Amino acid sequence: MKPGVLLFNLGGPERLSDVKPFLYRLFSDPEIVRVKWTPLRKALAYTIATVRHKTSKGYYRQIGGGSPLRRLTEEQARALAAKLKSRGRDVQTFVGMCTWHPFLDEAVEDIQRSDVDHLVILPLFPQYSVTTTGSGFAVLRRLLDRGLASKKLHIQWIRSWPDQPTYVESFANAISRELRNFADPSKVHILFSAHSIPERYVREGDPYLEQTKKTVELVMDRIERRNPYQLSFQSKIGPVKWLEPFTSDVITALGKQGVRDVLVVPISFVSEHIETLYELDILFQKIAREARIQNFRRVPALNSDPTFIQALAEIVESAL
Question: What pTM value is reported for the model?
Answer without folding.
Answer: 0.93
